[in-house]
Each structure stands twice: as C-alpha cells, then as structure tokens.
Amino acid sequence: MSNQKIIFPLDKNPDFINDLRRRVDGYFKDNNLSKYGNKTIVFQSVFMGVLYVLPYVLMLSGVITSVPGVILSWVAMGGGMAGLGMVLMHDANHRVFSRNQTVNKWLGKSLYLLGGFPPNWRHQHNTMHHGFTNIEGHDEDIAPVGFLRFSPHRKLFKVHRFQHIYAWFLYGLMTLSWVTMKDFVRIKNYKNEGVAPFDKKYKSYLTDLIVAKSIYYFFLLVLPILIMPVGWYWIVGGFFIMHYISGLILTTIFQTAHVVPSSAYPLPSDEGKLENNWAIHQLLTTSDFSPKSKVLSWMIGGLNYQVEHHLFPNISHVHYRKLSQLVKETAFEYNLPYHSQETFFKAVAGHARMLKMLGRQVA
Fold first, then answer.
1. Its domain of life (predicted)?
2. Are residues 163 and 358 in contact, defined by beta-carbon separation less than 8 angstroms?
C-alpha cells in the first residue's frame, strides 16, 4: 500500500457535516437515546451466535450423524458465521456495541471464532477503509488479488474482461483466505510499512496469530474429524462450504456499497490533497441499498445503510434506519449526492455492471 499522506481539506464545505452532526445529536437528545447498541443488537447477536454454534454442538454431541445432516449443519454455520460478523463483531470492533468499552473489547474478539485476527481487521477496516474509502493505494477493499479489478486506477489485464462472471465464485473464498494466508501476509506487510503498533509488537502479534489459528483449526477441523462418525472428507468439505457461504455473503454485501456505478475513485494530488472534505468524500464513494427492508437490515447488521455507517461509524447500526432520512435530507439541502438502490437485487446488478465496466475500461 502507498505511504503517501492523504489530506482532506477541512476548510472546504464544512457546513454539511457540521449541520448534519447537529441534527443527529439532536435526534438522540430529543428521543433520549444512546448512540450505542440496545436490546435489538443483543437479540441479533444471540440469534446469529446460536445459528453458528448450535449446529457444531449438535454434530459433536452425536445428535446429528448423517451425511446430509452434517452438510446442512455446515451450511447453517456459514450463515451464522456471516451474521455474527456483520451484527456483533462489526459493531464491537467499531466500539459501539456497548457503552462499556471493556464489553466492546471482549466482544470484538469474536472475530477469532470466525477465523480472523482482530488487530488486522481493525487497521484494514476502521483505519484504512473508513479513513480512505475507494482511494487507490490506501483502501485495501479495492485492492484484491490480480484476478479482480475493483478500481479504474489498477492495472487492467485481459482476464478482467470476464470478471463480472467469475468474481462471484471468488467471493466465496474471502473468509477462507482469512484462515489460511491473508492474515499472515497482512501482519507482515503492516510491519514492513511501519504501521503502529505492528512495527513494535510484530513478534507478539505473530505469536497471537499462530496460537489463534491453531486453536481455530483444532476446534473446527481436527476435533470434528476425531469425534464425528463420518469420513474426514465430509468434515473438510463442510468446513469449506461454511466458509464459502460466509465469504460470498460478506463480500457481496460490502462490495455492493462501494464498487458500483455511482461510486467515485478520487485520486489525491502529488501533495496528497483531495478535492473534497472527508464527509463529502464518503457520500461520493458509498451507496445504500434496500432502505425499506427491515428484515434484510436486521439480518445483515444494518450494513445496507453504508452511507450512514461511513459518516457515523461511532454510532451503532441499530440507529441507521432512522438516521438515514436525516442524512438524505441534509445531503439534498446542500446539493450533495445521496446514493441508494431501492433493492438488494438492484445493488447486486449495479455491482455486476461495475465489474463489467472495470474489466474493460482504463482510467
């Protein structure tokens, strides 16, 4: 990633975000609400946790022993894994699940249960993605492996011409890359780039990473193989299915918010300065979808309100539906864009069109 310092002009059009923050603060004050999570997120987390853990317990306890039952259990765990990540882990690592920061700290470690590594995720997501959305060389979410091109500023290869077809198959491999090599590559890259605290605590982080991965593999692969009365290949296959389902869900949800036709990919000047301030930059690079679907929003932890999340990552997702109208109205008052797709399917279709465009166009 680039070491260029990015500068958002603080003195350019500050009225929008200042006014919006006043309105949002007023909403919480007038309704006597906390900006943190509430009983809704607790129920969501319990539901997703049960969906992830219960099938595993039923398999290991001998309640589920048939091959079809085992495969269906891994399928359910894939949905629970994705849901737990979007609902609990995401808010906790943004420190907004609870007002109590000790609770957030420990719940943020739920990423270990999903095969990930919390320190890596917080730097990649909270610092780089939220801080420098869709900026080439800074946002790792638009810098996948060479088979995929998510930015018009990346090198175009002939294979990209077909990425709108094969990308969906690769998306399912996302969490599998977490549990195999990606976290090891990231931690080493962050050390080499001098990212604090990875540069000072690399050996400590590496030890934690190795221990965490070892424990994860023991409980999710070794123990089931030793205990369950089915062939080891069914366990390995189920493990793959779980991660594939989770990866496909997570990648699709996140990419439909940023890699779509309405998204901008601003480039900084040679001095690192961008044209717009940070808040307007978020409006230009982010899109909502399915704003009227309460069920979908509940299932994916409010991540269909990505505009609101990027403007207010310090507020729990349980409030985004109500805040979306404030954000939309304020943006329009200041003649600023507010991107939103009516349904999830339209958002997916938009992402597919963008993949096709990026597979053919050079910046």
1. Bacteria
2. yes
pLDDT at 361: 79
Using DSSP, state whether 36 is helix, strand or coil. coil
pLDDT score of 362: 64
Q: What is the pTM of this model?
A: 0.94
| Spacing of C-alpha 301 from chain mean position | 11
Q: Considering only CA atoms, which of 346, 329, 286 is closest in space to residue 311?
A: 286
Is 257 in contact with 287 (CB distance < 8 Å)? yes
In this structure, what is the dihedral angle of CA atoms 306, 311, 313, 315, given to the nearest 10 degrees?
-100
Task: Measure the CA–CA gap between 214 and 170, rounded to whole angstroms.
Answer: 25
pLDDT tens digit sequence for 233-279: 999 999 999 999 999 999 999 999 999 999 999 999 989 999 999 99
One-character DSSP codes across 299-348: HTTTTT-HHHHHH-TTS-GGGHHHHHHHHHHHHHHTT----EESSHHHHH
Q: What is the spatial distance between Cα 67 and Cα 160, in angstroms, rounded to a whole number? A: 38
Separation between Cα atoms, residue 60 and residue 69, nearest integer Å: 12
Parallel/antiparallel/unpaired status of strands 340-341 and 288-289: parallel
Q: Shortest CA distance to 54 belongs to which of 39, 68, 74?
A: 74
In three-state secondary structure terms, 259 is: coil
